[in-house]
Amino acid sequence: MDTKRFVIGTVVGAITVLAIGFSLFALPPLLDFYLYAMNAGSAIGVARESPLVWAVFVGALSYGALITLAVGTRPNRVGVAAGMRIGAVVGFLLWCTANFMLFGISHVGTLTSTIIDPLLELVPGATAGGTVALVLDRLNTADASRRAAAA
Q1: Which helix (H) or strand (E) holds 63?
Q2: 0.70 exceeded by pTM
Q3: What is the pLDDT of residue 39?
Q4: Which residue, 56, 50, 126, is CA-closest to 87?
């Protein structure tokens, strides 16, 4: 995978993760669940009044880059369905790692939110994986068409 494909896949993945994540996690009823989970027990006041948008965007870019690497480095063509499976696995493992590590070393979240969040992350991860696979496949097809026309 070249730099152009990596950058495009990363941006597409980040935008997808942000859009799906916002619609899934920032709107009721899950917003109430997460606000409760982040402010339960001794973790009172952990949730920010207004989030740091730049930090959320950097995190989404990292997530998009990870999905792009997982999809784009496959030796064979990856279709949308395979991209969705790859994205779902990446999202689940990423958030399972982050949530259980945070739960183990801090008072952020509850055990319930720690278990449920990686399962919910199957949706944004799968959607981003399918979108990245689609975009990378279209880029490959366009490049192949240009090479054929030049020959």
Answers
A1: helix 53-72
A2: yes
A3: 63
A4: 126
